[in-house]
Amino acid sequence: MRGATNNDHLSIMPSQPRSSLAGGRGNAGLGGGSKRTVRVSVAGPPTWFSQESSNARAWGQSAIQELSGSTRSSKSGKSTGTVRPSQLSPMQEESSRLEWMKQKCRALSDNWKFNVLTTTLTIYALFGDDFRLAATHKQMDIMFNILTIIACIVFTMEIIVSSLGQAEYFMGFFFALDVGSTATLLFDLTWIGNALFCASDDDSGALRTSRAGRAGARAGRTVRIIRLMRLVKLYKAYKTNLEAKKAVEAARLKAEAEAPPHGSDIRRLSSFLAPGDDVDEDWPQIYESQEDSEGGDSRATLTHAPSMNQDDSWADEAGTVRPSQMIAEPEKPEPSQSRVGKKLSDMTTRRVIILVLVMLIVMPQFTPSSSGWEEFLYSSNFGSDVVYERWRSYCGGNRTEAVGASSKFGAPLWCLQDLDSHVDDRRKSLRSWFERALLNFMYQHHHGSFSYRLFWVGVNSTTMTEPHDAGLASRTEEAEGYLGKFMQLNQEKNLGKYVYPTSMWTSRFTGSGDWDDNVVPISEVVIERTQKEWKERCSGHVGIPVQPAVQALAANDCSTTEELRCSEREFATAMGLSLVEGKDFSILFIFDTRGTTKLEAGLNILQTIFICLAVGVGAMSFSKDANELLLHPIERMIAKMETIKDNPLEAMRLGDLEYRREEVEQARKKDALAKMSRLKRLLFQYQYMKVVKEPMETVLLEKTIIKLGGLLALGFGEAGAEIVGRFAGTSPGAGIRENALGTLVDCAFGFAALRNFTESMDALKERTMLFVNQVSEIVHGCTDDWHGAPSKNLGDAFMLVWRLTGTTPERQTKLADMSVMAFAKIVAEINKSRVLAVYRAHPGLLQRMENFRVTMGFGLHIGWAVEGAIGSEYKIDAAYLSPCVHVASRLQMCSLHYGVSMALSDTAVSYCSKELAMQCRLIDHVTVKGSRTPIRLYTVDLDPSELEVVLRMPEPVSRNRFKIRQLREIRKNEKWNEDVFIPDLFTSDDDLAAMRRRYSKEFFHRFSMGYRNYEAGEWLAARDMFFTCHYQPKPDVGRDPVSSEDQWPEDGPSRILLRYMKSFNYEPPQDWPGHRELPLAPAPR
Fold first, then answer.
1. Band of pLDDT at residue 991, cut at 50, 70 and 90
2. CA separation for the pair 451, 444 (Å, rounded)
C-alpha cells in the first residue's frame, strides 16, 4: 500500500465492531497519532473466521477500501477516499444519477408516512363517491371533486415512484391494476361523469333523452364495479407491511445466530470436548443466551451447574456432562419465502382479484335490466304511451303536409298552428280526455309506492322550435312560449263545457280511498302551476315541476338540473310513436330517483365491504391451491422418477421431451413477438428480455431430476439400467447395497479399439480427449443405430453390448447380424468422416506414422455374463463379469494380429443367419485365454481405402434435437421389420459394396481350400494354396516359385498362417490337434 511504514500498523479483524478501529480497547486508533499511514495485515484468518457470514467479509472489504482511500488522499490533503464525479465517464454519471433516482423512489415507496397517505386515499376512493350520494347535497360535489383530484395526483405519483423503485413492477399485473383503478377515479369527477353518463339538457328528442339516461345509468354502475380494483391497494399495503416486518425479524435473528461465542465460553466448552468426541443432537441444551450487562455481548451461560454425582437427565451413568449440553444453539431465523411460495401467493391473489372482478362485471349482464328489459313498458312508460295516445286522438291524427298561411310557426298539426283557431265540440271533448290522462299520470306518479317520483313534466315540438325557414329562427322563444300557453290545463277556450273544476280533481283522480293503492292528492301549488303558462325549459322541453317543495323557476331555467344530480334523474316518454310524430309533439316526464340512489349507495358501501372480506378470505383459501406451481410439478417429478426407476435409459427421452417443450414455447413467443406492433414489441422485450427472472425451485428440481437421470443412463449404460431400476425399485432403505447379487444374462460382447493410440496421444497431447470423443460419437451412434448399447469407455477402447436375454430366437439371430453390421458401419463412417479426415494431415501424426489414418479393430463374442454392481460405498460401477468378456477383448487384439478389421468367434457366427455367416471368412483355429475350448476365428473382409471422405455433409432433415432423436428411433425400429434382411446390405449398401469390391470369389475359394489343408495337417498343400491367395486373380499365379516373404500375398491371415507353418518348416507337429495357441504379441507384417 502506498505510504505504508513499519512503525505504525493496524490489523483489521472482521470480528471486531467498527468502533474498535477508531480507538477501542487495546487497539490503536486511527486518529490518535500524527501519522495517517496504516498497514493492513493480510495474515490468514483464524479457523472460526471461515464460518463468518458474508456480511462480515463485505465489511472487511469495505474497511480496507476506506483505509486505502484515506491513505491515497492523505497526500492531497483530503480526508475522503471516494471517487470524484469528474473521474466518472458521462455514461457512468448517467448511470449513477439513475441509480440515485431509483434509490430515492424506493425509499419514498417504502416510507410509512407515504404508505399511510395512499392507504387513506384508497379508503376514500372506495367509499367517497357513495358517501357523496348517500349523505350530501349537490352543492357539496365541488369538495369531493377536489379530494378526488388530490387522490389522482397522489396515486399517479405512487405509480411513477413504484415503476422506478420496484423491480418487475412496471408493465406488471399490479401496475395494470393501479393504472386502471387510478383511471376510474376520473369518472368520480362530476364534470366528467355528467358528460359521459348523463343525457344532455339541450337534447330536444325526448325518446333519445330517455334512452341515453338509461344507458348512462348502466355505464355508471359498470364504473362503480371497475373501481373496486382500488381495494387491491389495501391488500398491497398490508402485504408490504407484513413482508417488512418479516425482513426485520429475519435480520435480527440472523445477526444473533451469526454472533461468535464468548472466549470464556469457548475455553469452558473445550474442557468437555476430547478429540474424536461426537455431539449428540438429542440431548437437551443447558446454555441460553443473555445480554451482558456491560458490553451488551450475546454470551452463552450455564443455566444448570453440572453435577458429577446426581443422576440428571443430562448426565450419563458415570456422572459426566455431555459436551452437547455446553453448546448454546441460537434461535434460528425463519427461512425466507421461496420463489415458488412467492409466485404461488402472487398468482393466487391475481386469480382471486380477476375472478371477483369478472363476476362483478359479467353477472349483471345476465339480468333482465342489461338485456333490454328496461326498454319494456313499466308503469311510467305505459302511462306515457296512454297519455300520448290521447294526444294522438286529439290532434296527432290530423296532420297536414301542406301548411296553410294561417300557420304562424309552420307546424303541420292543426292544434299547434294558432291558439285562436276555431275548435268544435268534438275536439274539445278529445282535449278533455287528453288532459284527464295527463292528470291521471301525474296523480299516480308524483308520490306513492313507486321507487321513483314524478318531478317534472314538459312538452316539445321540434317542427315549431326549429323551423325550416331560416327567417323564422328568431321566433324559437316565441314558439316555446306558444307551447307553454297551449299546455295550460283546464282552460275554458280549449274545453268548453268539459271544464272540470279543480275542487273535484282529488276525488276524480285518487278514487276517494276506494282504490287498492292509495293515491296522494296533488297540492294546490302544483294544480295552480298546471293552469298557468309552462315556462321552465329542461332537456329541450317546456314544462313545470310537479313537486310542491320545488319552486318554479323563470323562463329558460330548469329546476331538475338545480335540484337533482344527473344520476338522480330518470326520463320517461312515449315509446309507441314514429320519428315524425316525435318531431311534431313529444311529452317528457322526469322522475326523481333520490330514494333509490341513496339506497343503492348504501348497498354499494356494504357490497364493497363484503367484497373486501371475500377477496381476503379467497386469497387465503386459494393460497392452498398449489396445483400450478407445487402439486403438478411434484406429480411430474414423481412420474419422471417412476420412469427412471423402471427404465433409466428413458431419461434421455424425457430430456428430449423437455427440450422439445422449451423449443415450442420459445417458438410460440417468437411468433407472438413477430405479430406484435413496434410498441408492444418494445414492452415485451422490456418485460421478458431485460429483466432476468430466476426460475422456480420446482422447475430447477424437475430439470435436475431429468439431468441426473440422463447422467445415470450415460454413465451406467445398458448394464446400469437394470441395476439402477433394481436398487430404486426394491431397496427398502435410502442406502445402496453394494453386496447385492448379480443377474445372469446372455449378451453379444464387442470391443472396439483405436490402433496406434499411444503414438496418437503422444502427438495430440491435450487434444487427445477431443479426438477420442469424436471417435466415440461415431462408435456409439452406430452401435445405438443397430440396437446395441455402449457399456464402457476405456480410453482407447469401447465395450459394446447387445443383450440377448429375454428375446426370441429370431430376434437373437437378428441382433447377432446387427452386431456384425454395426462394426462394418463403424469402419465405413470412420473413414468417411470429414472430421476425422483432418488428422490425416496432422504433422505430429505424420511424423510418427506414415500415411496415418484413423483405424480401429473389433472383436465380437457371444456368451454368458453376470450383470451387476461392483465396488463399495465409495464407488460403484456397473459391469459384466465373465470369461466371455475377456474373450471378446482378446479377439479385438486378434484383429490386429491378423491385420483384419474385425475378429469374430465361432459362437458369434453361429448365432448369425446363414446368409450373413457366408459373408464371414474362417481364418484360424486357436485357443484364447478365457476360453476352455479352441475357438475358430472369423472375419469380415473390408477395405476402407476404397471409401472417399464426405467433404460436404447432407442437409439434415431437421435441426431440432427432438426430431432428430425421433427420426433415429423410427429408423431403429424399422430394422425390426420382416422385410429388412441384414445380409442383403452387403450388396445393397454402397459403402459395404465398395469395401468388399476388392475381394474376388476366387480369393475366398483359394483361401478356404488352403485353410482346410492347414487344419488337416497338409501344410505343404496349404502353403502352395496360400501362396496364390491374392485378392484379385493373377494370370501368372503359381508359375514362378516363391522364394521370399516379399512374394507372399498381402492378405493378413494368409501371411500369419504361412509364417506359423514356416516356423515348423511346413511340417506339422506329431500331435497336431488342428488348432494352435494364439500368441499374445501381434506378429510383424
1. very high
2. 12
**Continuous segment of H or E residues that includes residue 426:** helix 425-445
All 3 cell numbers of residue 109?
415507496
Q: How confident is the model at residue 108 (pLDDT cuts 50, 70, 90)?
A: confident
> Does pLDDT of 27 surpass 60?
no
pLDDT of residue 924: 94
Report the alpha-carbon distance of residue 1004 to residue 939 in Å, rounded.
Answer: 12
Three-class DSSP category at 276: coil
> What mean pLDDT comes out for the span 815-835?
94
> How far does CA 31 lie from the centroid of its chain?
56
Confidence bin at 117 (pLDDT 50/70/90): confident
Query: Distance (Å, rounded) from C-alpha 1014 to C-alpha 1017?
Result: 5
The pLDDT of residue 264: 47
CA distance 48 to 41: 17
Angle at 723 between CA 722 and CA 728, to 5 degrees: 100
User: Where do runs of H (alpha helix) occur along 791-905?
Assistant: 809-832, 843-848, 883-898
Given a contact cutoff of 8 angstroms between Cβ atoms, the answer to whether 63 and 40 are in contact is no
pLDDT (0 to 100) of residue 34: 39
Gap between the Cα atoms of 236 and 389, Å rounded: 59
Q: What is the pLDDT of residues 853-884, one digit of tens each?
A: 999 999 999 999 998 888 887 877 788 899 99
Tell me which residue of 393, 416, 392, 391 sits closest to 406, measured CA to CA: 416
Q: How far, CA to CA in Å, does 564 sit from each of 145, 550, 602?
A: 17, 11, 18
Residue 305: per-residue pLDDT? 40
Beta-ladder partners of 876? 871
* Rounded Cα gap, residues 1063 and 1055, in angstroms: 12
Q: How far apart are CA 512 and CA 177, in angstroms?
A: 59
- For 928, residues 6+ apart whose C-beta sits below 8 A from its C-beta are 887, 890, 891, 894, 935, 1078
Task: Tell me phi and psi for residue 96, to 5 degrees.
Answer: -65, -40
The three cell numbers locating residue 638: 414423481
DSSP SS3 for 672: helix
DSSP state of 374: G
User: 684: number of CA atoms within 13 Å, CB side?
Assistant: 13
Query: Among residues 190, 180, 271, which one has the least CA distance to residue 226?
Result: 180
Measured in degrees and rounded to the nearest 5, phi and psi for residue 268 equal -70, -35
Joined together, the cell numbers standing for residue 17 give 465492531
The DSSP secondary structure of 1-21, one letter per residue, reads -TT--SSS-B---TTS-GGGG
DSSP letter for each residue of 972-1022: HHHTTSTT--GGGHHHHSHHHHHHHTT--HHHHHHHHHHHHHHHHT-HHHH
The DSSP-derived string for 477-532 is: HHHHHHHHHHT-SS-HHHHGGG---GGGHHHHHHGGG-SSSPPPPPPHHHHHHHHS
Quick count: other Cβ atoms within 10 Å of Cβ 1033? 12
Residue appearing with cell numbers 383503478: 181
Return the DSSP state at 795. S
State the greatest distance between any 2 C-alpha atoms of the chain, in Å, as a whole number. 163
- How buried is 658 (Cβ within 10 angstroms: 0-12 exposed, 13-18 middle, 19+ buried)? middle
Name which of 234, 283, 916, 869 is nearest 608 in CA terms.
234
Q: Each residue of 1037-1081: pLDDT tens digit?
A: 766 778 788 889 999 999 999 999 999 999 999 889 999 988 755
- CA dist 349 and 113 (Å) reads 26
921-927 and 1076-1077 beta bridge pairing: parallel
pTM above 0.70, yes or no: no
Alpha helices in 111-188 (DSSP H): 112-135, 141-165, 173-185
Per-residue pLDDT, averaged over 213-218, amounts to 58
- Residue 229: per-residue pLDDT: 62
